[in-house]
From TrEMBL:
GO terms for molecular function: RNA binding. GO terms for cellular component: nucleolus. InterPro entries: NOL11, Nol11_C, NOL11_N. This is NOL11 protein. It comes from the Eukaryota.
Length: 678
């Protein structure tokens, strides 16, 4: 998510509308969607065309599909009927009963109670709210009426099941959260008839206010038995309302922490596997969280912070402050979070009197080392990485790298080049774990570290990839020769003389000869210009070639990279295209179109980057006289390749016949055969 690379995309036809959220079937690893209310679609990840996916037209309109890890998908219809997906697929046109009359479904949720799936949904009719609890496999249905609240109505719902009891949480318009307990039970038909008139009483769980500021909530989710998260607008007296994501301790009625969202949200909040998902501005933001055992000491500490009149004193999860440096992995009274792709998990420094020095958290240890000498800092950090427990190893290393880059920013003279290279080479890191590392390396012009990061990090943003490419192309060959970079990807196919200049070799590219083709091309190119453009000699030195190969290896999404490549200076673009053309020619020399060496670029990578660069810079290339020879040579070479492979296709049948005859021939018999290829 940090680099916004779509892994799959499917769309319905023009005029069709997806009418409920798409879900994943955990058992079959298939996607399930409904468009135009009644048309069911099921497809797998490898399917490309949604129009060719499985299709079933149902007899009633679908409200939601709920997918449970061990219970299979459940389909809830607008009339209140529920079917398992398997039962529905057996007879898609089966009649679906209407359970609700004149009511509109406002919310639904599905849960597992033991081995049985339970589906809960709420409805509204004439400002009255009702709750339905269904067990589809047992054909059990219970209907309740929600107790009315004077001058307030429910805005949203969430629920969870504990000890055969449904705990329904309701966020009301009076800025309060109420709790409703609904026992899951087996009743006779008479009791079920009586339950239709039963009114559910509710109890006040939480007031969403602190120090005169009131949270106008729009969405809430349950984190655990003691914590809930509420998304909404925080309104303080004489201050502009600010949208915030807040976490509350329901056990002690306190605000645990808050994150301001200045770009605005859609009002929706999702929670899955200890991650928040929300729309912030125009992007999807993912925030990791971890709820630990609630204690009075932690709650009082938070309450003390939250009672200060200045609401802006809430934690800012995007920065590394002295008092919240990184996550306290062993803290027993914190809610640790990771915001917007940063592994800056942190917690307040709530210390316990009995805490021993040997149980210091990562955050506390790094704080203690903040002003330590370079030797002490690096020694302690190496010990920390060596003894970090496996589940927390990646987060610990991310914190260590963040601490090192932080010191580099504070002290321009400090830069532990070897230590950072060692960490990146030996640890399974990613860009999102240490987002400032490559920025610091660019500032320090550490080309070797950038090369390693580009080859190893799977999630580098396109803007950073472009910045590295521009830096590599702009650096002089003389300066690069004094820099230590890994040459394994180029040393096997770039021939170098003693004066470090490549000598030109005679090349015949899969049946293509440049001199023969020259006569067939309308454009006459001077020999001197042709020698620079025909792909025979490498236009860059070994070091620059190795760095450019690292860029070719980095993952990217064309949509996000293309706007940046359009800003590449013309001379750098031409130089990069010359190098890509050189690699293309080198690959074409080999029967298997594979370059020798370790981490050498593949033919697909070369072609993709060449097409991408031409798309981004085509107008510039056409207008510049310097690019004319290069484009002409590239055009000739591609045309010759197309002609050569076209000729191969013509004799494909004959070659297959030769192969068949070789299998039939006796190995010990000598013979001379003449085959006429027509």
């Amino acid at each position: 998510i940090s680099d916004q690379k779509p892994l799959g995309c499917w769309s319905v036809k023009h005029g069709q509308i997806l009418t409920c959220p798409v879900v994943c079937n955990f058992e079959t690893h298939e996607y399930i969607a409904v468009h135009d209310d009644k048309v069911l679609r099921i497809w797998k990840n490898e399917d490309i065309n949604l129009d060719k996916a499985f299709k079933a037209t149902l007899s009633a309109e679908v409200y939601r599909i709920h997918s449970l890890p061990h219970g299979g998908p459940l389909v809830l219809f607008r009339g209140g009927g529920v079917r398992t997906l398997d039962a529905l697929l057996e007879a898609p046109q089966q009649e679906i009963e209407n359970i609700i009359s004149g009511e509109v479904i406002r919310w639904s949720g599905a849960f597992m109670e033991g081995q049985q799936p339970v589906l809960i949904f709420t409805t509204e009719k004439d400002e009255d709210f009702f709750v339905y609890v269904q067990k589809p496999k047992l054909s059990s249905l219970h209907r309740y009426k929600l107790e009315q609240q004077e001058s307030a109505k429910p805005l949203c719902f969430t629920a969870h099941v504990t000890n055969q009891t449904v705990i329904l949480l309701c966020l009301y318009s009076n800025d309060s959260v109420y709790q409703v307990l609904i026992p899951l039970q087996q009743d006779t038909e008479e009791e079920e008839e009586e339950e239709e008139e039963e009114i559910l009483s509710k109890s006040l769980l939480l007031n969403l206010s602190v120090s005169g500021a009131v949270l106008k909530g729009t969405s809430l989710v349950v984190l655990d038995k003691d914590h809930i998260a509420v998304l909404g607008s925080l309104a303080a007296p004489e201050k502009e309302p600010r949208e915030c994501l807040t976490i509350w301790n329901t056990k002690f009625q306190t605000l645990q922490t808050s994150k301001e969202l200045p770009l605005g949200t859609s009002g929706q909040l999702w929670c899955y596997e200890e991650k928040f998902f929300l729309i912030h501005g125009k992007v999807l933001t993912v925030i990791m969280y971890k709820c630990e055992t609630s204690s009075l000491a932690a709650a009082v500490g938070k309450l003390k912070d939250s009672q200060t009149p200045d609401v802006s004193s809430f934690l800012n999860w995007n920065t590394l402050e002295d008092e919240e440096l990184v996550v306290s992995f062993q803290s027993q009274e914190s809610v640790a979070l990771k915001a917007e792709s940063r592994m800056n998990l942190r917690s307040r420094r709530s210390t316990v009197a009995e805490e021993q020095p040997e149980t210091l958290s990562v955050g506390q240890l790094l704080l203690n080392l903040k002003d330590a000498s370079t030797y002490v800092l690096e020694t302690e950090l190496k010990k920390l990485m060596a003894k970090a427990p496996t589940p927390e190893l990646q987060a610990t290393i991310g914190c260590v790298v963040t601490a090192l880059t932080d010191r580099c920013k504070r002290n321009p003279k400090y830069y532990p080049q070897n230590f950072l290279q060692q960490i990146v080479e030996t640890r399974d890191l990613s860009y999102s774990l240490c987002p400032d590392l490559m920025a610091v390396a660019l500032e320090k012009k550490d080309m070797h570290l950038l090369q390693i990061c580009l080859e190893r990090f799977p999630d580098i943003p396109e803007e950073v990839t472009y910045t590295c490419l521009k830096a590599f192309l702009s650096m002089s060959e003389a300066h690069l020769q004094s820099i230590d970079v890994d040459l394994d990807s180029v040393i096997c196919y770039i021939d170098v003389e003693l004066d470090n200049k490549e000598f030109k070799t005679e090349i015949v590219e899969n049946g293509f000869n440049a001199e023969m083709e020259q006569d067939m091309c309308d454009t006459k190119i001077p020999k001197e210009s042709q020698s620079r453009s025909d792909g025979g000699s490498c236009p860059v030195g070994l070091q620059k070639a190795a760095l450019l190969n690292a860029v070719l290896h980095s993952a990217y999404t064309e949509t996000f990279l293309l706007p940046h490549l359009k800003n590449l200076p013309a001379r750098q673009a031409i130089l990069f295209l010359r190098y890509l053309y050189y690699l293309y020619v080198k690959c074409s020399e080999k029967v298997n179109t594979t370059l020798p060496g370790i981490r050498s670029p593949t033919i697909n990578q070369i072609m993709d980057w060449m097409c991408l660069l031409l798309d981004a810079q085509f107008t510039v290339m056409v207008m510049l006289p310097e690019a004319k020879e290069l484009l002409s040579s590239l055009h000739k070479f591609v045309r010759a390749q197309v002609r050569f492979y076209s000729e191969l296709n013509k004799i494909e049948g004959s070659l297959q016949e030769l192969q068949r005859l070789n299998h039939l021939r006796e190995s010990q018999t000598y013979s001379i055969e003449v085959l006429e290829i027509i």
